[in-house]
Amino acid sequence: MKDQRSFLTVNYKVIRKNRKTIGIKVTDEGEVIVTSPFGISDKIIQNIIKGKEEWILGKVKLMQENEILRNKEIKNGSKFRFLGRKLELEIIEVENIEEDFQINNGKIRIFVSSRGIVRDKIDEIYRIEAKKILCERTNIYSKIIGVKPNKIFIKNQKTLWGSCSSRKNINYNYRIIMAPIEIVDYIVVHELCHLIHMNHSKNYWNTVGAILPDYKERRNWLKSNGHTLKI
């Protein structure tokens, strides 16, 4: 069941479900969605939204800014994050492509036959590098922790940086390699420790802390900066 309401300059959508609590979410497109149990009045929802006004408007502004960045033209000199550094893009148009890309000397060089495929090529490069880096880091920490995942998958997850299934498969969000290596390692350790504890219990966090004593600082960095890790 859905209905739409207006809140200041923000439109928000109310979705009523069979649930116990009220949730507020701002999508990547800047849409505000309120999920509410049946029987909760509009007035109660409005009061809750009013109490979250600053957070909602800040989140909407952030998502709108991200949307502008996503639609920004990619050209020579554009900057892209890679393992915490900013690489400058150099586009080289060639007819016969012998190699796809190079990452060195603070630059990411891509060789393309047409400028129309630049964005897709960068996305492909990051997926390739993510698979290499994340598999390497997983192998290192697997030996330290004494666990081994069944399979590793590289994905583009909207809301997760990683996940671990009951089949001992680990999924990584390829965009995490835009973050510094210590943040990459935090995600790797986070998921590997789920092979021991399939929850976020005290024992789980103790296991993470035994490997990364400063995991809270790394986790906080990701919470504060994760929204910037976009291509």
UniProtKB/TrEMBL annotation:
Q: Where is the YgjP-like metallopeptidase domain?
A: 20-225
| Domain of life (superkingdom) | Bacteria
PANTHER family to which the protein is assigned, alphabetical: UNCHARACTERIZED PROTEIN YGJP, UTP PYROPHOSPHATASE
Q: Which residues form a coiled coil?
A: none
- What InterPro entries does UniProt report for this protein, alphabetically? UTP_pyrophosphatase-like, YgjP-like_metallopeptidase
Q: Which organism is it from?
A: Clostridium thailandense
Q: Which Pfam families match?
A: YgjP-like (PF01863)
Protein's recorded name: M48 family metallopeptidase
